[in-house]
Amino acid sequence: MYNVESSAIVNMYAKTILFVFATLLPATIFGQSDAETWFKGGNFYQIYPRSFKDDNNDGIGDLKGIISKLEYLKDIGIDGVWLSPIYQSPMVDFGYDISDFTQIQPEYGTLEDFEELAENCKRLGVRLILDFVPNHTSDQHEWFIKSVNKEEGYENFYVWHPGKVNETTGERSPPSNWLSAFRYSAWEWNEKRQEYYLHQFAIQQPDLNYRNPEVLKKMNEVLIYWLEKGVSGFRIDTIPSLYEVAPDENGNLPDELPSGKCDDPDASCYLKHIYTYDQDETYDVVYEWRELLNKFHADNGGDQPILMTEAYSDLNHIVRYYGNGQRNGSQIPFNFHLLAKVNRNSKAADYKKLIEEFLQAVPSDCEANWVLGNHDQKRVASRLGEKRVDLYNILLKTLPGISITYAGEEIGMTDVIISWEDSVDPQALNTNETTYYAFSRDPARTPFQWDESKNAGFNRGNKTWLPISTNYKCVNVRTESTQPKSHLNVYKRLIKLRKEAGLGAASYESELFGEIYTYKRQNDSLKPIIVALNFGNSWTTIDVSARYGVSESLKVVTASTESQYEEGQIINGTRLTLPNDVGIVLTTV
Fold first, then answer.
1. Do the Cβ atoms of 566 and 556 come closer than 8 Å?
2. pTM score
3. How far apart are CA 479 and CA 459, in angstroms?
């Protein structure tokens, strides 16, 4: 047995009691009965529409395809589904370059298809969340065209600047050294207007100017438009980029300093983005949007609409999105604190520390949230280890608060090797044939694997917009549905437990046993739930019964498919043996 007393790590972290994350609440609020609190303890699911299900067999996923699979989402226990952008777009950045915020991109379907989707989601009790992209538009949006032409009311709709002029040569250059997230200068010269415009992403994605109140007014109208169409909230894209520092009294903008993170002067990582990221005004806009959604709810009833905010920022900035004490903000500021800081070499103590730092930072009247994957990251199985697929799903589904899953993580989908010739991601294509793969987001965006038929059941056509994984015949929904010990069935059992036991609001108490991270979840109506996760490289035996003051006989709720344990099995909690890379969920008999 592992000697707890001799472990320096455990001595450092031992007896971490108690993040009572929220007032102990009855499990009933975690269903879909309370319009005010439907999202609490919820299970959210991200769909990349292009890759989920192709109904018309043109190689691209669509709204009809999503409609056809809503029963699947209901079956696995999803409370809310978030769609990556479906708006009208030239598709330079696959929908994040929007040319009309109130129309559907034709390859995804029509407004009528969307209305059918919204109605079916409502019927099934699966809330529909839309991606909201407020930082920029497409350069084909009518607003930008009017701004280029300096039409009345649109002159300052975007961030324009005449640039610097060399007094000796008369040559003009960008107003600052700011860099795009997609490489190279964030400034582009517009010949017609004779000024530079800011684009923190692709050249075809000009940044809106939020110092112009008319911009905010227009974006508020977009939110109301979709709320009236039946959505239950929005995920706000790249929110920290919304504002950049204002020019000084002479119209000059400051240069950003080198970050020391990389030595490529064309890459975004080369600079500290202190003037283009996390500006104070950004939070006020989020608070205003929350008030707008609250007013819509007060006037119209139905679900309380929610905001989910995307910010790859430090913990202090992420927490500010919740609110400032006087004004409420995002209910779900995406927690990338864990995602950004763990890798294959991370220790159990690293996970425990990062998780508890976030739990401690969350305001007492708000909910934590947990996310390890999305359309911009390499898949969890490929990034952190295929053997740990279940371990990570156990972690995300048994911690306090809200859990977010990227489509495919529930079945253990992996990245697909995409050749340079097959690459379509602009972030990759802005590099070169040698380095592109490190920057490419294509590997995690490949078509969803539904079954073992042609094209993994994504469609019945002759093409798919990205290649299908070669492992689709064994890693797919239909195959895993028939196997009692499969990633999918572990995932479903976890959500069932989460809902029935109200795990989102149960108390949390933790302990390290070397490389095994354990915690107990409990509330007034819940038998103790014990979770153990082996992040080490070897089998280890521990005593969880004594540590958590529970009986020796414990029942397996679920365990990693890589483990020797079966659902319902009775084991001795004083000698719990866990293989490496395995997680288990136990309760008292």
1. yes
2. 0.92
3. 17
Angle among Cα 33, 36, 42 to the nearest 5 degrees reads 65
Q: CA 501, CA 531: separation in Å to the nearest integer?
A: 14
d(CA 464, CA 487): 25
Pairing of strands 127-132, 233-236: parallel
Q: Are 473 and 502 spatial neighbours (Cβ–Cβ below 8 Å)?
A: no
Active-site residues, by number, are 237, 310
Query: What is the rounded distance in angstroms from the CA atom of residue 166 to the CA atom of residue 163?
Result: 10
One-letter identity of residue 416: V
Give the residue extent of every domain in the chain. 34-138+213-244+280-481, 139-207+245-278
Are the C-beta atoms of 396 and 424 separated by less than 8 Å?
A: no
Print burial letters for 258-284: b (CB count within 10 Å at least 16), e (below 16): eeeeeeeeebbebbebebbbbbeebbe
pLDDT tier for residue 502 given thresholds of 50, 70 and 90: confident
Q: What is the mean pLDDT of residues 112-132?
A: 98
322 phi/psi in degrees, rounded to 5: -65, -30
Structure tokens at 2: 């592992």
Q: What are the E-state strand segments in 116-159? A: 127-132
Asked if residues 446 and 60 have their Cβ atoms less than 8 Å apart, the reply is no
Share of the chain above pLDDT 90, in %: 90
Give the list of residues 6+ apart from residue 24 with CB closer than 8 angstroms, or none. Answer: 505, 506, 507, 523, 524
Per-residue pLDDT of 315-350, as tens digits, reads 999 999 999 989 999 999 999 999 999 999 999 999
- CATH placement of domain 139-207+245-278: 3.90.400.10
What are the beta bridge partners of residue 298?
Answer: none
Secondary structure in 3-state letters for 502-542: CHHHCEEEEEEECCEEEEEEECCCCCCEEEEEECCCCCEEE
| CB-neighbour burial class of residue 300 (10 A; exposed 0-12, middle 13-18, buried 19+) | exposed
In 3D space, the residue among 344, 282, 288, 284 whose CA is nearest the CA of residue 310 turns out to be 282
For CA atoms 549, 554, 560, 565, give the dihedral sign: positive
Q: Is 557 helix (H, G, I), strand (E, B) or coil?
A: strand
- The CA distance from 424 to 406, in Å, is 20
How far apart, in whole angstroms, are the C-alpha atoms of residue 87 and residue 103?
6
pLDDT of 175 higher than 50:
yes
pLDDT in tens, 403-452: 999 999 999 999 999 999 999 999 999 899 999 999 999 999 999 999 99
Backbone angles phi, psi at 299, to 5 degrees: -80, -25
pLDDT confidence tier of residue 503, bands split at 50, 70 and 90 = confident
In eight-state DSSP terms, residue 588 is E
Phi then psi dihedrals of residue 373, to 5 deg: -150, 155
Asked if residues 461 and 455 have their Cβ atoms less than 8 Å apart, the reply is yes
Question: What is the C-alpha to C-alpha distance for residues 433 and 428, in angstroms, rounded to an integer?
Answer: 9
Q: State the architecture of 34-138+213-244+280-481 in CATH terms.
A: Alpha-Beta Barrel (3.20)
CA distance 164 to 548: 66
Q: What residue type is 243 in one-letter code?
A: Y
Distance CA 232, CA 450 (A): 27
Which residue did the predictor score with more confidence, 517 or 526? 517
> 36: which strand partners?
none
Cα–Cα dist 120/116, whole Å: 6
